[in-house]
Amino acid sequence: MNVVEIKGVTKTFAQGNVTALENIDLELQPGEFVSLIGPSGCGKSTLLRIIGDLTPPTSGTVTVNGKPAKQARTDGDYGIVFQDSVLFDWRTVAKNIGLPLEMLGWDREKRRTRVEQMLDLVELRGFADHHPWQLSGGMQQRVSIARALSFEPALLLMDEPFGALDEMTRERLNLELLSIWQQLGSTVVFVTHSISEAVFLSTRVVVMSPRPGRIAGFVDIDLPFPRTVETREDPHFFELVTLVRELLRRRGEHLLPEEAELL
Amino acid sequence: MKQLREWAPALVVFVAVIGAWQGAIAAFHIQQFLLPKPSDIVKAFWTERHTLWPAGWYTFKEALGGFAIGSALGVAFATVVARFRSVGTAIMPIAIAANAVPIIAFAPIAGAWFGEVSPHSKMAIAAVLCFLPVTVNTLRGLQSANPQQIELMRSYAASELTIWRRVRVPTALPFLFTALKVASVLAMIGAIVGEYFGGAFNALGVLINSDAQIFDFVTAWAGILVASLLGLALYGAVVGTERLVVRWAPDTRE
Fold first, then answer.
1. Looking at the complex, does the CB of residue B151 fall below 8 Å from at least one CB of chain A?
2. Mapping DSSP to helix (H, G, I), strand (E, B) and coil, where does residue A27 land?
3. Are A193 and A159 in contact (CB under 8 A)?
């Protein structure tokens, strides 16, 4: 069974004057790590939010875990990570991570055990009683990931989670995310506008084009796991980066400066 | 030790100002009805304690009552406005305009409505003074919730009530306490000024007013000292409560 099934999804804004997404079809198999990449305005974040039932599609259907998206949301079938860590200042790190567990009605003891496991997973043991503002941006985002994974959702939605971080922190968190994903085996939808990040992380990259948002093509990433720092220096890595870039460019889109630099 | 260092500059300035005040009166032979010596004021504060302190307590209770009523109404009103946006768009511009009205001008009318001598008229004035700042700030706080935090709660299938409890209210608390600090000061002002227009014989505002009329300025100043101390006490109580409730906030922590 597919974890996510998107059929003919269209999304318009402003009384139909702006088409953010047009006729999107996409299927995600269990355990896939799929990146959505495209320039600003291609609707990649909107698509993510439609999968999470945070905004309704204008037409088309979305199924998550074989259920309508709304049911999946109510059942807690996915965890979500935004570009900002979206932590609650009035909660400690441990209580931030435990928030979804509280919402699901877990008892205190069960929550405590799980939160400790999650703190280990994101290597923040010892920071349980800190408040978010006492942590660096990278650590905050790790808390946010731990929170999204705490209830072991089948699906993890990530909306440019590392977009606000510096390059070095970003690359380290990429490695950490991959190792977490391999431990848990969840399915990931990862929105980014960094080509190298998409190629490095994914099993499949979905290239999107803007106005209206469409899927321009797919690139299967057959780089072996586990991926390491060396993967980024692998000639095949560059071939795949080029392939994604060509797909983006064929749509007549200007590259972002950070991507042009890589060229 | 750290706290002492923080307080030291303010303490030095305070002592210097009182010292200069005391010294200036001696040096320039300032007459007592213009400005009494601080030492005389403190003396009167002690010798008149049997009238001033109970009067202060009486007025303090009026201020406290007004503070509680006005703030509670303000929070309730802000909650309704935040919950039903149409109410807000209809009423908020008027509320903000009303905030600019010198409400203290209503003091004589409050006397007519709630009884000139009755403490209720003073409570009413204090309550009206507290109401708007609390409303405006609480509303701003309730509307300041991070939209992504709300979206995150939606992803957990949280109900509106849960979102209020876990996101909107905690976000609004620092705003609320800022307003309560302002309101605590306003409440004391409202009660005392209200008493200037008439009140019980044992009310602080009435005593200050009558002492000034019989040129007993030292006692009037001592009354002002009592009012200041009580105002500070109320303010301090709000700050203390804030430290207990808003423990997470970076600025109250360090």
1. yes
2. strand
3. no
What are the backbone dihedrals phi and psi of residue A68, each rounded to the nearest 5 degrees, phi first?
Answer: -60, 150
Q: Residue A28 — φ and ψ, nearest 5°?
A: -120, 125
In-domain check, residue A210: yes
Is residue A158 one of the residues assigned to a domain? no
Q: Is A123 domain-assigned? A: no
> What pLDDT score was predicted for residue B200?
80
A82/B249 CB distance under 8 A: no
The position carrying tokens 């380290």 is A172
Closest CA of chain A from B85, distance in Å: 21
Is there a domain that residue A11 lies in?
yes
Label residue B108 by pLDDT band (50, 70, 90). confident
In angstroms, the first-to-last Cα distance of chain B is 14
CA distance B147 to chain A (A): 9
Instruction: Please list every residue in chain B whose beta carbon sits closer than 8 Å to the beta carbon of residue A75.
Output: 157
Q: What domains can be seen in chain B, in order of their start residue?
A: 48-253 (1.10.3720.10)
Using the Cβ of B158 and the Cβ atoms of chain A, whether some distance falls under 8 Å is answered with: yes
Nearest to A103 among B148, B149, B158 (CB): B158
Token look-up 């037409």 returns A59
- The total domain count for chain A is 1
Task: Say what percent of chain B tops pLDDT 90.
Answer: 32
The DSSP line for B54-73 is HHHHHHHHHHHHHHHHHHHH
Contact A9, A45 (CB under 8 A): no
| Nearest CA-CA distance, residue A58 and chain B, Å | 19
Q: From CA B59, how far away is CA B230, in angstroms rounded?
A: 9
| Assigned token pair, A131 | 């408040």
Instruction: Give how far B233 is from chain A: nearest CA, Å.
Output: 27
- Which residue from A222, A220, A153, A211 is spatially nearest to A185, judged by alpha carbons? A153
Region B54-65: what's the mean pLDDT?
91
Q: What is the pLDDT of residue B83?
A: 85
Tokens representing residue B175 in the block: 């705003």
Domain residues for A8? 1-77+189-263
Hey, CA dihedral for B210, B215, B216, B218, is it positive or negative? Answer: positive
Reported ipTM exceeds the 0.90 cut: no
Q: How far apart are CA A98 and CA A159, in angstroms?
A: 21
* Token code pair at residue B202: 């044992």
DSSP 8-state symbol, B164? I
Q: Say if residues B204 and B52 touch (Cβ distance below 8 Å).
A: yes
Task: Give yes or no for B252 touching A (CB within 8 A).
Answer: no
The CATH number of residue A56's host domain is 3.40.50.300
Partner-chain contact B156 A100, CB within 8 Å: yes
So what's the pLDDT on residue B158?
Answer: 86
